[in-house]
Amino acid sequence: MTFNFDSYLPSLFPDCHYSTEQLKGGLVNITVRASRIDAQPSLGSNGQAVVSLPVATEQKDCACPRTLIMKYAPPFIAAIGEKAPCSQTRQIIEATVLELFGPQGPLDHLNTPDRVRIARLINHDPVKSVLVFEDLGRLITLWDLFSPAMVDQSSVNPIIIKRHCTNIGHRLGSFYADVHGPDSLRAVRERISESDNTRFLDRTVNSAFNFAVKPILERLQKPGGLDTATAEKLYARVHGDFVREPYPGETCLSMGDFHPGSVLVTALRDWTNSDSQVEVGAIDWEFATVHNGRGANGDMAQFLASFHALLWYFPQGTLTHDMVGWFVRELCQTYAAQSGLAEKTGKSERAAANPAMGILRSAMILFGRETINQAIDFERDNGSRVPVVEMVKAGAWYLERAGNSVEEMLEPENWAELMKEKMGIMLRLFGIEVQGEEHPAVSAA
């Protein structure tokens, strides 16, 4: 199923002409960029008037946006087809979130160019499932930023690269600490209607279970190499954390599916000097929730697992590897400080009665789970170059250290092993002093 954006646009902007180009990377929806063009009549070879459509140009007297983004939500996952149905309610959720971050929304103060930008909503057509919103510019995803091909072609000074990688990590850590905070949740619940509140029920549970939870048991055994009993024990922890009731104070506004493709940044080639401002944007909010949303142990653990996989994949000593390390370190430290986790887990008494310890255990389980899933995805996309067995075992290490309960996780012998976390990502996210052998890039000052 496709959608004719070109024929739909005149219904919104009858006085302007647009050309459209489909954007890559979208899995769930079909997304295009529409660029305004000027109609210029000229005479053809037969003497008849012909309208040519050149590239977009700025018309200061035109009220139509110069560029905009349009997203069509079919009743299934676009990249898979009808065999993977997906509720179109997801688009209503995204439109609602964009309004919350909009000029009259309770989260508008978080939507700033010097930190993170959220696109302004232009129009939502729930009948045709078309969402139209502001174009943040020709930015790239973090997947693209941290790709060896892009880095190898760059002539930007590594000192400037380090500065901006650190800056991006700081801005994202600060932004999501506020998004996940109690003030944001309270403001959203006060603003949205009862019908919107119902729509915010987590609708990704079934698909997330089938795609991200159910395969773990088999993956722990092959390629992970664990025996059946051990694999079943660790899988039970993954399943148990997935289906449990929320901890006190855990629920927050969350994206629900946060990965490197959810963040847009200025392309590396445009990082021309250390004082220039790199753009950062957060996109794709269709799976956001305010009911079962998880912050550090949801959005952040899932997001960081992708970079954990990149640190395993990229050879140490390469610039790409260092870039990921600089970014991850600052992201974790900023989030820990601004979210209050550094006080709750890094400096407070480590006891099972401390709710933050339950969040830590949950984060370790999700981080381990998604490290395993990323290992399989990386092998599929990159072949034999991926150390898939080592990556799956690295994910399993987190499931083992999580224990069967918070009490078991906090047992002295297990806690001592946890303090040896090789790259220190989860410990740093929770503001806990890293004592183990750290990853060179992540531990760099």
Using brief descriptors, characterize the structure shown.
47% helix, 445 residues, Aminoglycoside phosphotransferase domain-containing protein, three-stranded antiparallel β-sheet, Kinase-like_dom_sf, five-stranded antiparallel β-sheet, alpha+beta, 12 strands
Query: The biggest beta sheet, please?
Result: 5 strands, antiparallel
How far do the termini sit from each other? 50 Å
Structural class: alpha+beta
* Unreliable residue stretches: 39-43, 49-60, 437-445
Report the total helices: 19
Number of strands: 12
Instruction: Please give the order of strands in the largest beta sheet.
Output: 1-2-5-9-8
Global outline: globular
Strand content: 5-15%
Q: Averaging pLDDT over every residue, what do you get?
A: 88
Rg to the nearest angstrom? 23 Å
Helix content: 40-55%
InterPro entries: Kinase-like_dom_sf (IPR011009)
Organism: Cercophora scortea
Protein name: Aminoglycoside phosphotransferase domain-containing protein
